[in-house]
Amino acid sequence: MTRLGGALLRWPLLIVLVILWEVATRAAGSAFFPPPSTIVTRMHALWFSGPPGRLFLTDQAVADILPSLGRMAGGLAGGATAGILLGLALGLSSRAYDYLDGVLQFLRAIPPPALVTVFLVVFGFGMRMQLAFIMFSIIWPVLLNTADGARAVEPLYLETGRAFRLSRRERVLRIVLPAALPKVFAGLRLALSLSLIVTVFAELLPGTTNGIGFQLTVAYSMFNLPAMWAGIVLLGVLGYLLNEVFLVVERRVLGWHHARETAGA
Amino acid sequence: MLEIENLTHIYGGGGPSAHHAIDQLNLSVAEGELLCIVGPSGCGKSTLLRSIAGLITPTGGRIKVDGELVRQTPDNLAVVFQDYSRSLFPWMSVADNVALPLRRKNMDKKRRREAAAEALESVGLSGAGRKYPFQLSGGMQQRVAIARALAYRPTLMLMDEPFGSVDAQTREDLEDLVLKVRGHHKMTIVLITHDIDESVYVGDRVVVLSKAPAHVVADLQVDLPSPRDQINTREHPDFVHLRAEVGRLVRGQPVAH
């Protein structure tokens, strides 16, 4: 009910804001700030005027959007898998955690763009560098949240597992991991939004020939401001949709957790 | 079945903050017996249970289950903890919770499911397998924990204040449930409680522990007629007499003979 009410309020507000944006940009008449109607027309022309058989996607859309999503998915999958595995290992060994906590907090605190030159030196320009850069950027929230979750597992859960003689592997897979899952998902959600940011950042670098970031660079260099704005709006829409998909998955996987919290247990 | 010799446990390794929980405790439990252990709060009852279950290593003495020295959790031993809300796994359905320990028993998935359904039926929860623990009341959750122990087919079941967190009516139902399942499954039960009436009502034998460091103060046989009944048993003169005696022992008062 509240969700429905929220959704009903959300759309009128958005529409009012877009109308205000339209009026303001038209009144200003600045070439740097095209009105939203121009941006949407350009988005349609650029990406969504293809044949119906291809879901209306143009060749340009395939060249811009798919490579970005691919890099993002690859980096996210690699970084999240590594983050969960290392986080579990770290959370299960309090000694390792004590030793490494400071180092990890230090590494996490470095803004990824500051390290981009290091990645260029090691990997050169291109896909390998981009993937490594995305993985490195998003691994920290996943790793640290997973380690936190694995450390905070209710002791009686573990004692129950031991009392029923579950093997160590079973205790990790069936008790520690599910118990840490709410924390893991908190980390994954941060990683998801971060991955879109660093993917676009990596695509702004030389040596890229496709992707939304590349499209932005091209539009900017040709002083094609409507196309640049189209890219920016597209990124906003993508980020929103990805987050919505993530929430659907989370609600499925963590149903027990949310239901339990609402039940007040 | 269970033999405890000179069991001693000190937490904190002898420093100034060390806590002497158990001191030179001797106890033996025969096959098929239902032994209740009572004692004042904080006397080391849970330490004793965790030592028997192999969850902690006592600092001194020996524990044998079926003649085998306990080093880790023995085979065929199941534990029912007091805090069901933190001993059942909230991310698993009730049936999965009950079936989980059966993974160690070399049973295939189908047989694990059947055994879980059967155990749930024997605690009166036939239809609840697909629910999640948080959807059940406290008493029902503790029934699930008991079903999990039963499905495991233990020869020794340890219960750590199993009814300490439920209301009085539910507590009586669960006491009778223990007596019932005990009749069906031939097993030895050690039940720890701080409730004096409960120990006399449920037990074949009641062992009273001193306050910490715990040792055995008294070992009393309960010869009440079977089957026990919440109304009749509790008004039986032997019950009234015995509960008074246990009560005095727990409080450390002299016993009149």
Automatic annotation (TrEMBL), chain A:
Instruction: For this UniProt record, give its keywords in alphabetical order, as a comma-separated list.
Output: Cell membrane, Membrane, Transmembrane, Transmembrane helix, Transport
Query: Which CDD domains does this entry report, sorted A to Z?
Result: TM_PBP2 (cd06261)
Q: Which residues cross the membrane?
A: 72-94, 106-125, 131-154, 175-202, 222-242
Q: Which PROSITE patterns match?
A: ABC_TM1
The membrane-topology field of this record reads: Multi-pass membrane protein
Q: Where in the cell is it found?
A: Cell membrane
Q: Does the keyword Lipid biosynthesis apply?
A: no
Domain named ABC transmembrane type-1: residues: 65-246
Q: Which family does it belong to?
A: Belongs to the binding-protein-dependent transport system permease family.
Could you identify this protein by its name? ABC transporter permease
Q: Give the species.
A: Nonomuraea harbinensis
From TrEMBL, chain B:
**Which PROSITE patterns does the entry link to?**
ABC_TRANSPORTER_1 (PS00211), ABC_TRANSPORTER_2 (PS50893)
The record ties this protein, via InterPro entries, to: AAA+_ATPase, ABC_transporter-like_ATP-bd, ABC_transporter-like_CS, ABC_transporter_ATP-bind, P-loop_NTPase
Q: Output the Pfam families linked to this UniProt entry.
A: ABC_tran (PF00005)
- Domain of life, source organism: Bacteria
Q: Cite the ABC transporter domain residue spans from the record.
A: 2-236
Which Gene Ontology MF annotations are present? ATP binding
Keywords in alphabetical order, please. ATP-binding, Nucleotide-binding, Transport
The protein's name is: ABC transporter ATP-binding protein
